[in-house]
Amino acid sequence: MNEEFKKRYKEKYYSLKQKGVKFFPDIIYKDLVVSFGLFILLILLATFIGVENEPKADPADTSYIPRPEWYFLFLFQFLKYFPGNLEWVGAALIPGIAVLVLFLLPFIDRNPYRYFSKRKIAIGTMTIIVVGMVVLTIIAAVTTPPQPTSAGVATTLTEKIAAGQDLYSVNCVECHGPDGEGGEIKGVAGLEGVVVKPIHDNDVMYAFTDNTLANIISMGMPNRGMTPFGRPYGGQLSPSEIENIVTFMRYTWDDRAELPPEAAQAAAIPTLAPNEVPSYDVQIAPIVKRYCVSCHRPGKENNHYTMESYDEVMKSGDHAPNIVPGDLNSNLIRMIHREEIPAGGPMPPTKPLPADLIQIFERWVQGGAPQTAEQAKQASGSNPVPTATPSAEISPTSAATETQPHNTPTSTVQATSPATPAAEDLIVIDQFRKLLGLPELPVNFIEKTGMVNSPSGDLTVVVYQDSEGRLYSVDQISHQVVEVDGRNALAAVTEQSGAPTMEALKEKASQIAHALIPDFENLSKNLVYEESSKGDYIYFTWRDQNASTTLNKPFLQIGFYKNGVIFAFYNTLTLK
Amino acid sequence: MLKKLFNWLDERLGLTSIYNVVLDRKVPKVNWFFTLGSASLFLFLMQGVTGILLTVYYVPTPDHAYDSIQYIMNGVTFGWLIRGIHHWGATLMVLVVFLHMLRTFYFGAYKYPREITWLTGVILLLSTLGMGFTGYLLPWNQRSYWATTVGTEIPGTVPFFGQFLTNVLRGGSDLSALTLSRFFSVHIWFLPAVILGTIGIHLYLIIRIGISHIPDKDD
């Protein structure tokens, strides 16, 4: 710039200054307005958008898609156009030159003019560059795939404990047990029969710091058979996940740490109202997750029975179906009752499932094994809560018309068939109770439903419940009691003393069979007889293996509690 | 009484002459685009204040960095607000500083007699980007770890001495505890010192020369 231009500029600037404004307050005022606006904007952004949660850095997780801060995205995208040996041109050379040009701009751009139209080259170049940066940023933002792990990150203590419990259930339960109690390992390849020390007592909790626990989980204990779980050592877990497991262990088992009430509540299996049918989503999934999934997931020895979703629970496995809605003789129910059956041995292998959880499973299967809470509600919605109303006042006619068809695929209802008058069923039930020696109690209509393990597979029965909880299913064609389920009433009778011998019980069962079926003596020649027991339950069964029915062979089964109380009865032999 | 106190201070601090030189000066009429500079300064001060508060709890080690931030977010009273402002302040500052640069460019304000003001401005822009880059690693989460891994690979592409540059940035061949402490130190000492000093020169020049005017057809 020559001296003449400099002089001209100085004079012009001087005159503009004289015509201008005072720095204070005019300029300062504008600055303050803008700064205050930015301040408010910052507070709003921090409050309503906040900072996104991210899991802890995991150097071993190579699947993570790196993504720079947005203002470097354009560079990130720019680099992609310089593959292989040319990479450094896009990465270092061009940006380096750009920065240098920007830096030395006043000495490169010797054009003395300032007005836009007199600086076409400079303005044009800069505009192209800025537009290019914006376009590159947009391309990068649009084309970068979303991060695969978009699941929420546990931040609060409660979330961490819950996340830790889930991870513990999947990764640790098969060896350490659902409560860290350890014991003999069963069904884990390579570790069969190894005895694991408990990890839930103070010996472990007081001796190991969080860091030590995290390191053990991450690196494993190879000389004791524990494989590494941390990703750097060949496992599957990230540092954040291991930390969550440690948090769960510390707050659940260390008596110096107090489990927050919300966390305890979140971990509890939802409880059930007396007549509520459990659903997979609400009750079964958490139980399965905690007690079963550790082994029943891909890559484990489980006869291909995986249990990670409703469909898998219902349909997968070499012995599928392991759950037949409505059938308490389903594989799964028999196995959690610790029965040895063709499908496998007692489950879970090391420690029995708590009785209340077994009951939830039974009620679920009995209620048609519904998936969603909505379906379960419909299933239980047709079960009005039993009242103390005398049986004579019951009107199944009206109740039956209220009954809605089930959504579950297995319990079919023939809504068109007329409901039998209650009195007729009540007489049948009364006769039957005398036969079995059951107490006489008022009964309530429960529902009209299909019975899936009947020979035809869809026998329509009307179900009544007595005031101690026994369920009676009455066939509407031949007017006989097809099924009695007295497990709900066992609590009331288990106090009775005496443990009759197997022989005595068999004799009793045989008497009932004879009383019920007049020519049983003759018939039984063609029946296959078997005795079986599930824990405290003893069953006597006669099966008609030659029957031509396609779905289920007719059978008669009588079940006793170990003290000789009859609690279960099932008869499809005499159906017409 | 107040007047006496003011006179006493004025005699020693020269308040009146500061007022005359800095505040009570005439400048050309300008528009709202000319507030971008002061907005940058304001955001820098906000970042300084919130950053200092964050260092109270933040621990720059791989073992504790993530947890200390979790604690700031969930445990410290208004910790979430301080971190939120710092986080969004960084984004806004890059944006505002860049717009300030564009304004200077389009109005030709880098020309005589403001060449040196422009030079210091470019240093401030690059330092701001450096602050963004180093600060991004500090939360030590997946996003920051991998972004920094990729970011520090870029100088490594330069032939011959590229790998050396990457190793200097990382403090070794891989991202490690050294990288974190290095970035932390650069983020809270080196760059703020550079920025503060440069802002001093930048402001001195602005006051000395005066803000540029909006060019008209004669310029």
What would your notes on this structure say?
The complex is a heterodimer of chains A (576) and B (219). Chain A is α+β, with helices and mostly antiparallel strands. In chain A, 42% of the residues lie in helices and 10% in strands. Chain A folds into 5 domains: 1-50, no CATH class; 65-142, Orthogonal Bundle (Helix Hairpins); 157-267, Cytochrome Bc1 Complex, Chain D, domain 2, CATH 1.10.760.10; 280-376, no CATH class; 397-571, no CATH class. Chain A contains 22 helices and 11 strands. In chain A, helix 3 (73-79) packs across helix 6, helix 10 crosses helix 11 (239-253) and helix 13 packs across helix 16. Chain A is elongated and about 130 Å long. Mean pLDDT of chain A is 80; it is low at 383-421. Classes of the chains: A alpha+beta (576), B mainly alpha (219). The interface between A and B is large, with 78 and 85 residues.
List keywords for this structure.
A: alpha+beta, Cytochrome Bc1 Complex, Chain D, domain 2, eight-stranded antiparallel β-sheet, B: 219 residues, mainly alpha, Cytochrome Bc1 Complex, Chain C, 9 helices, 1% strand
Fraction in beta strands of chain B: under 5%
Summarize the main sheet of chain B.
Answer: none
CATH superfamily heading of chain B = Cytochrome Bc1 Complex, Chain C
How much is the radius of gyration of chain A in Å? Answer: 37 Å
Sheet with the most strands: spatial strand order of chain A: 4-5-6-7-11-10-9-8
Mean pLDDT of chain A: 80
Task: Write the CATH architecture name of chain B.
Answer: Up-down Bundle
How many β-strand runs of chain B? 1
CATH topology of chain B: Cytochrome Bc1 Complex, Chain C
**Mean of the pLDDT scores of chain B?**
94
How far the N terminus sits from the C terminus of chain A, by CA atoms, comes to: 114 Å
- The helix tally of chain B amounts to 9
Count of DSSP helices of chain A? 22
- As a percent range, the share of helical residues of chain B equals over 70%
**CA distance, first residue to last residue of chain B:** 52 Å
Helix content of chain A: 40-55%
Coarse shape of chain A: elongated
Based on secondary structure, the structural category of chain A is alpha+beta
As residue ranges, the low-confidence spans of chain A are 383-421
Sketch the major β-sheet of chain A: 8 strands, antiparallel
The whole-angstrom Rg of chain B is: 21 Å
